[in-house]
Amino acid sequence: MGRVALVTGGSRGIGAAIAVALKDAGYTVAANYAGNDAAAEKFTAETGIKTYKWSVADYEACKAGAAKVEADLGPIDIVIANAGITRDAPFHKMTPQQWQEVIDTNLTGVFNTIHPIWPGMRERKFGRVVVISSVNGQKGQFAQVNYAATKAGDLGMIKSLAQEGARAGITANAVCPGYIATEMVMAVPEKVRESIIAQIPAGRLGEPEEIARCVAFLVSDDAGFINGSTISANGAQFFA
Ligand code: CAA
To answer: Staple partner for 2: which of 20, 26, 83, 204, CB 3.0–4.6 Å?
Structure first.
């Protein structure tokens, strides 16, 4: 059995592709999800990857969830903080609730995910942390004041973690996907989506597997000196 990897939001979209890529690379994978039981059951049936239900917005649930995964599979050496949500609205229409829900999941959720696992990584002198940020955290996006703030915050978090973990053999890096063909992007109104695709020099949406391959590289032994970095995978839409 390979090292144990936890992928949050790992039963659908980019997270599911990451979970599968890590399993294919020989890791033992646990996929966390928050609410969609049917999708999680289907994912496990199709891939054999175990799924675990908790909300990343809840610190105690993250702590208990990580403990359960470790009891089942062994110490978590690799954590992929991927779970994320959108609550898009132009700023003048954005409600405090829309702001808070996105902060709780996309920013505090990343803290909640990594924090209970970090001490074990320090003790074992090995760890791989990857946060899935976004091109919109790098460039900002109309109707995403909340989302862009969290995704930019995630980048500050990994740069700080990289400095804290380096001596303990832990790397912390980010991947910034552009617009990827997932349910999240498909939920954008079609006309708006078409205008976004027109701004992507590659002329297409990315595939979840294209993000998963970036993650598989960052968690590999070969990437041990890459720490505090961001891989942008956006079809040349934006250069950070
Ligand atoms: N730039 C400038 N103006 C824009 C704009 C843009 N990118 N998008 C919309 N507008 C304008 C519209 O033309 C409209 O102007 P008028 O009032 O003059 O017609 C106004 O802004 C929008 O007003 P509405 O009242 O129609 O807006 P709404 O309350 O219905 O909200 C919306 C619509 C939520 C903004 C919708 O257009 C939308 O979902 N946009 C996409 C936002 C987006 O890209 N989200 C990314 C989701 S994918 C993701 O997040 C994954 C990732 O990491 C990349």
So the answer is: 26
Q: Is residue 237 part of a domain?
A: no
CA dihedral 32, 212, 46, 184 (to 10 degrees): 70
| Residue 198: domain span | 4-231
Q: What is the pLDDT of residues 155-167, one digit of tens each?
A: 999 999 999 999 9
Q: What stretch of H or E contains 173?
A: strand 170-177
Q: Is residue 239 part of a domain?
A: no
Q: What is the CATH number of the domain that holds 35?
A: 3.40.50.720
CA terminus-to-terminus distance, the chain: 38
* Surface-to-core class of residue 240, CB atoms within 10 Å of its CB (0-12 exposed, 13-18 middle, 19+ buried): exposed
Asked whether the whole model's pTM tops 0.90, one would answer yes
Per the annotation, the verdict on 52 as an active-site residue is no
For the chain, how many structural domains are there in total? 1
Give me ligand 1 centre to Cα 7, in Å.
30
**CA 88 to CA 98: how far, in whole Å?**
8
Question: Does any ligand 1 atom lie closer than 6 A to the CB of residue 93?
Answer: yes
